[in-house]
Amino acid sequence: MSEREAPQPLPAGDVAAPPAYEDEKPARQLSGWVGYVVAAGCVLLGLSAVYQVFFPLAQGNQFALILFLAAVLPLTLLCYRSGLSLPSRWRSSEPKDRPDNPTPLDWVLAVVALAACLYPVLPFQIGDGGGGFDEFLGRQGTPGMIDVLVGTIVLLLVLEACRRTTGVALPIVCLLALGYAYYGGYLPQSAAIAHAGVDWDQIVSSSFLQSTGLYGVPLDVAATYIVLFTIYGAVLDASGASRFFINLSFAAFRRSRAAPGRTVTLAGFLLGSVSGSGTATAVSLGSVCWPILRKAGYPKENAGGMLAAAGIGAILSPPTLGAAAFIIAEYLGVSYLTVLVWAVAPTLLYYLGILLAVEIDARRYGTREVDVATGSAWRLLGRFGYHLASLVLIVVLLAMDVSAVRAVVYATAAAIVLSYLDREHRITPARLYAALATGVRGVLSVAAVCAAAGVVAAMITRTGLGLQLNSILVNAARSIAENPTAVLILTAIFAALAVSVLGLAVPVTASFVIAWVIIGPALQDLGVAAPAVAMFVFYFAVLSEVTPPTALASVAASAITGGRVIATMMQACKYALPAFLVPFAFVLTENGRGLIGLRSFTDAVWTTAVVALAVAALAVLTGGWMIRRAGWPERVLCAPAAALLLYLQPVTIAVGVGLLGLAVAVHLILNRIRPGVDEPLSAIPDT
Question: Coiled-coil region(s) at which residues (predicted)?
Fold first, then answer.
């Protein structure tokens, strides 16, 4: 029996509460004059970011970052709730039907944040030897009393902004880093992580006066790449691209029992270019696709896991990737196009794993066809395919050696012009204003996270903790094995576990920044190329978003489907399993570097093909299906086959292919004597 269900269009975006660029707490629904003031501030910040692409400030990069933080920090404190109970005399006097407007305390904190952040560029700075930005820079390393006081206030307000937007985990990590820097001298000198200790004025100097800490690479990336790409995503969404991407996905896979799952996979990839957030993509997909998945017969937890995995893939996928990808480009001094090239093969392998799992689950659960009324895919492409033009334009401009920030500005302009091909979604001045406000509001939490992550990274570098932990990590591997290959494998495993655990507590961007300064040197010291290490850390930072117990994408998906949270997380892990193992391929062997384009094109092709076999073996292992339902003998054989194929050495590849062939042979033999192998795992009632 088939059903007809038309997918509903996605909302064009809400200025009052934009979708998050990175996982964050819900923002306030501002109303009245407060909403207008905040929207105007966001628009001015967005226009300033665009202006500086073509006309950089003469005072230098740190001056621009000071102004950027002075804008985003007060806006963040106004846009996000404190979550703290206040005495009644301090509470807002707004009517009860407008509970989201800032409280008087929020306004006080916002004003203090504005003044404190602007202090370095004020023409007068009391008590510290004169004013002006040049005088401020001249006190680097020897901050005055007022410098220390103001820097401390800014640090505390940044931590408060992080607490409001992402929870207490990152502020705690930041406080631990600051505490370690200050009290490290009190640790026993025999301790591996002991150091001489850093005075508080030097901590403030590193975090507030110098071009590290608050004004380091993470905030620089937020102020340039991230804000511009988020604006681009908001404009693309307002032009109707989100609805087109989902409708196109439904039209491409119209009549098969696996079509709903394939649709979720394709739509997740396409929507990622708009949202830039795994959780936001999962929510957008779920609101439209869950009714279709339910009619097809997918269990709630299985559907939620599929939505979460497809959403997280948005952070891993070109052409926009996630925020940490821009930081990779800055840290390694390469173009953003280079990072996109590194991500191509791993992205293809990630979605291959999801598609194989989709095909298996369609057979395991006996899903049904669902006829979705969307019209012809070719007709949709002919009418609305222009939405893809700006995405292609970004890649073309990057290939022409245009900077990423200019490329995205030109792509945004192209999206605005092309929107006039659709009368319903034309980007009029009013819609452009709303899109700018929405886009900049979406980057507020990311800016706070980047500022805090920069402080943590600065403390790790200043105290030498990164080198010490690097030594501890490698020595732990050497205490278990002496063989260099075994040491590298164990170090990579320990590194993956460390990044995954760190990612449970802090957002992806902060997780990458912290892990890069701690774990990156350990793998590089063992001979792994810096690009491979960066992509390895990046992938595991992202994949912490689907692992229990804090997988936000899975939590959001389970809220939509009504499934059990932990069971949904486990299903998401099943879909994302290949992405957990593929990064090992490009750090363990030289051949593996071909997966991220560090070797010849031929190497990239054959390594991708071999790892695709490994992904197929993993799909059989987790899904329990090959040609028909697979038993434990076949699945047990597929586990070592996948591991050996991922090592990408001639001997291991030959043995892995042999084990996989043996698994197929065993499967064919056993299925002749096993009854009912084609029946679904559970009968699904017709609806």
Answer: none
Question: Residue 515's closest CA among 475, 488, 481, 542?
Answer: 542
Q: Which two tokens stand for residue 16?
A: 């009052």
For residue 577, give the nearest of 546, 606, 553 by alpha carbon.
Answer: 546
Is the CB of residue 109 less than 8 Å from the CB of residue 161?
A: no
Q: How far apart are alpha carbons 631 and 674 in whole angstroms?
A: 10
Instruction: Break the chain into its structural domains and give their ranges.
Output: 32-82+101-214
Q: Whole-prediction pTM value?
A: 0.81
Angle among Cα 473, 479, 480 to the nearest 5 degrees reads 100
Q: What are phi and psi of 371, to 5 degrees?
A: -85, 115
Averaged over successive runs of 10 residues, the pLDDT of the chain (687 residues) comes to 40 38 62 87 93 87 91 92 57 48 90 92 62 80 87 94 86 90 78 79 89 87 87 87 80 73 80 68 78 82 86 79 83 89 88 86 77 73 86 88 89 92 88 90 87 89 81 84 88 88 78 87 89 91 75 79 84 82 89 88 92 91 83 89 92 94 89 62 40
Report yes or no: 504 and 173 within 8 Å, Cβ to Cβ. Answer: no
Q: Measured between alpha carbons, how far is 324 from 410 in angstroms, rounded to an integer?
A: 22
DSSP 497-512: HHHHHHHHHS-HHHHH
